[in-house]
Amino acid sequence: MKHIHIIGLGLIGGSFALAIRKAFPEIHISGFDKNDQHLEEAKYLGLIDEAVESPPVETDIVLLATPVDTLAQLLQELLEKVSAETLIIDLGSTKARLCQSLADHPKRAQFLAGHPIAGTEYSGPRAAKEDLLNGKVFIICEMEKTDVHLKGKAYELFEALNLKLRFMDPQEHDLHLAFVSHLSHISSFMLGKTVMDKMEDERHIFDMAGSGFASTVRLAKSSPEMWTPIIKENKEFVLEALGSYIAKLKNLEENIKGNDFEAVSRQLQAVAPLKEILDLK
Amino acid sequence: MKHIHIIGLGLIGGSFALAIRKAFPEIHISGFDKNDQHLEEAKYLGLIDEAVESPPVETDIVLLATPVDTLAQLLQELLEKVSAETLIIDLGSTKARLCQSLADHPKRAQFLAGHPIAGTEYSGPRAAKEDLLNGKVFIICEMEKTDVHLKGKAYELFEALNLKLRFMDPQEHDLHLAFVSHLSHISSFMLGKTVMDKMEDERHIFDMAGSGFASTVRLAKSSPEMWTPIIKENKEFVLEALGSYIAKLKNLEENIKGNDFEAVSRQLQAVAPLKEILDLK
């Protein structure tokens, strides 16, 4: 591999750039971000060697790290342009609609649908970290639809970046992510809103944040520009997860109203197995 | 000060023990926990010098770090027993009912209602940490009701432990804590339950926990034995906070169902100021 092109130079695109630079110091990295300031920062921070909108003809891999609602059109356009030796990998948080929109594309085999399970609540090129992806899970959907030869390049990249590969159906991916990730973000955003609307004195929020609030609401610092499209793209599964969450909260509310604190206790106890699952990490 | 007695030797009581031992190496610390295993562990770990149920007559300060529903009766009993030179400080997460139950007690002046804003999701004596309280906020309610001379001892302790004092009305305390802390715990417990009920394959939860779930659900690892009584004691304010949270989630759900993603975006954007408030920490 000699040339990688990255579109979207924020937290994820930038972290890929830094990790690739470390793993393959000789690779030339070009890239683009439609936010001029981010593009300037990416150059200044050394994320990319060259700022160019379209991937040069010699590009081995194009990585797409833009908001999920931009990916389908971007992929359609890029697949027309790139050479037969170029693989395009998207890194978006939703997969079903995107895979469906490209299902019948004559160059479908030059696309690989991916999703790195990594991130922080910060965004933009300055949030990029060289070790963000190290040891993280990378989900691949419809692996069988990607060209065998081009897949070789992808494996070389994923192995060098120490990603743990998992294979999943796009629907299965979106369902699981709706419950585990997208719902976590929604619960966090709305928790933040509930507290802010009630407490006028910011000093009190600050003083009490150590009581569990700071970590629970951490994701509410995430970028709304990134998260609104994820909710939109994954609407059905997000609604399923959100509906289930609201039902559980209402059930607990009823128990509290009815002074059934044994039921409250049982509900809190029921989460105990999660302790073991998460402490494995 | 020569003698401190601690009842309840878990995360909070144990962390006070360790911090006091560091700040005042010469102080004798006695203590009790009705859980035999915790009491043994507390001795083994050196949290206390002596295991004894009732505070000895020479005790300067008794710290109460037991579940909130035990505090009122414990205080009634202890106030009868202790000498006039002993101050009793509770460290519970709710304050209104407790303060009310002691309002007319003839020895009310020997009691100080406190709440350290510190904790982790772990519990028991082994979870205690010497630096858990360092630099943390300590809320005091109805400070004016505590004897001036005894308050001197409390200030000496709080200063040595580097606690930042805040003064609040018990109702105000409980209202703010319901929104900032108690709601965070409830949202976290129910998020954990929603995910566990849906996903049968624990491997998937584990693989995807890095997507924001692990931190958002961290508080669900907290002790249900501690949290059920907090919800019960602070029922009215918890219901207010929970009702407000559910209403916001339902509102977002309606926006998503109605494809009003501009409204979704506005709601996520509205939390932006929180970023600054929390990043001060």
Can you offer a commentary on this structure?
The structure is a homodimer of 281-residue chains. Chain A is of the alpha/beta class and 281 residues long. Chain A has two domains: 3-168, NAD(P)-binding Rossmann-like Domain (Rossmann fold, 3-Layer(aba) Sandwich); 173-279, 6-phosphogluconate dehydrogenase C-terminal like domain (6-phosphogluconate dehydrogenase C-terminal fold, Orthogonal Bundle). Helix content of chain A is 51%, strand content 13%. Chain A has helices at 11-23, 36-44, 71-81, 96-101, 148-160, 170-198, 202-208, 213-216, 224-233, 235-257, 261-269, 272-279; strands at residues 3-7, 28-32, 50-51, 61-64, 87-90, 111-116, 137-141, 164-168. The longest helix of chain A has 29 residues, at 170-198. Chain A starts with a strand and ends with a helix. The model of chain A has no long low-confidence stretch (mean pLDDT 95). At the A-B interface, helix 6, helix 7, helix 8, helix 9 and helix 10 of A face helix 6, helix 7, helix 8, helix 9 and helix 10 of B.
